[in-house]
Specification:
Layout lengths: L14 E4 L2 E4 H10 L3 H12 L2 H11 L3 E3 L14 H7 L2 H4 L6 H12 L8 H21 L3 H17 L8 H20 L18 H8 L5 H8 L3 H7 L2 H11 L2 H5 L13 H12 L9 E4 L4 E4 L14 E4 L1 H6 L4
Antiparallel strand pairs: 1-2, 3-5, 4-5, 4-6
Helix pairs in contact: 2-3, 6-8, 7-9, 8-9, 11-12, 13-15
Length: 334
């Protein structure tokens, strides 16, 4: 019979009761620090160091969200890295407020809210819905990605209904998730986009046609392109240009995929690039582009955001592997 010590359920960890339930003390401290108001943080730095300008910049350069990924236990290390720990140390709630990481976090939550929601721990579930609530508040403030957020909230509502009878955690916890989702949905229903005032700054309509074409050719969903064409006559003419749809084809699909529906011996002037794009989209699907992604370092096994980097223990140039959302989830053996 194996020997079970005093702390066999949670070796070396202390727990603290919060308004959201019991949490590990070390993770609670990290959350408190990350949720500090910027003015409060600046005041603490000024009081402690007395050198405001230089020290404020140094602290911001040092503070990079990352977490060491522990693959297996050993005699010295008994605790594996959990996905709830990763959510806190990688500061996903703040990362979702960054336009460069918003799509990545949304896709990550979609995968977790799918078939995996019922098998997640209660702490991970609370982190997911907490991140979603922060995202809803940010979307309403910035008036960006509203439709994507509505889809995510509706997807979460459907997932809660499917896993109502086969989930980890108490029924009260599941009811709280439902209340959170209803609160988010109510905020999004009440939200109305405010018309931008004439502030004298450059708008999309003021850009040259070449700039507009380059911007819209990288949109992940062609339905947004069609909506742009409904705004004015100039944009309508732009989205009907064959050159734009040709750029769309070469941005979203590779040469092998394009040649499936395009004869290379055919004269390009007679090619219907809009038709080629439509066939490629139906066959190969939508290309998902992430401006910023999570990555794992092969030297120190730290998971971090590529745009922010991490303090590596190796003197060599860090060898990192970018992680797609499904690859990040696979690290935690779902």
């Amino acid at each position: 019979m194996p020997y079970l010590g005093r702390d066999w359920r949670s070796p070396g960890d202390e727990w603290v009761r919060t308004s959201e339930g019991w949490e590990k003390l070390k993770l609670w401290r990290v959350k408190v620090f990350e949720n500090l108001n910027a003015h409060c943080l600046a005041r603490l730095i000024r009081m402690a160091l007395q050198e405001w300008d230089s020290c404020y910049e140094d602290v911001h350069n040092v503070h990079k969200p990352y977490i060491r990924y522990i693959r297996a236990t050993s005699r010295e290390q008994k605790v594996l890295t959990s996905i709830s720990d990763a959510f806190i140390h990688l500061d996903l709630s703040t990362a979702a407020n960054d336009p460069r990481r918003f799509n990545y976090v949304v896709q990550l939550l979609k995968l977790l809210l799918g078939d995996k929601l019922g098998f997640l721990s209660g702490a991970t579930q609370k982190h997911i819905f907490g991140i979603m609530e922060e995202m809803v508040n940010h979307v309403i403030r910035s008036q960006n990605n509203v439709q994507e957020m509505k889809y995510l909230v509706n997807f979460a509502t459907q997932s809660l209904s499917e896993h109502k009878w086969d989930h980890i955690g108490s029924s009260r916890l599941w009811e709280n998730h439902g209340k959170s989702i209803n609160r988010m949905a109510a905020k999004l229903r009440k939200f109305k986009v405010k018309e931008r005032k004439d502030d004298g700054k450059v708008t999309f309509s003021d850009l040259p046609v070449e700039c507009k074409r380059h911007i819209v050719s990288t949109l992940p969903d062609h339905s947004d392109l069609l909506h742009i064409g409904q705004t004015d006559t100039q944009n309508f003419n732009m989205i009907n240009e064959q050159l734009l749809w040709k750029q769309m084809c070469f941005f979203h699909f590779n040469n092998r995929q394009i040649l499936t529906f395009h004869n290379k011996n055919e004269d390009e002037k007679q090619t219907d690039w809009k038709y080629v794009y439509k066939r490629c989209y139906l066959r190969f699907g939508k290309k998902i582009v992430y401006t910023d992604m999570l990555a794992i370092c092969k030297h120190c096994n730290n998971i971090f955001w590529q745009s922010l980097g991490h303090p590596c223990v190796s003197d060599q140039s860090p060898k990192c592997k970018a992680l797609k959302p499904q690859e990040f989830i696979a690290l935690f053996e779902f």
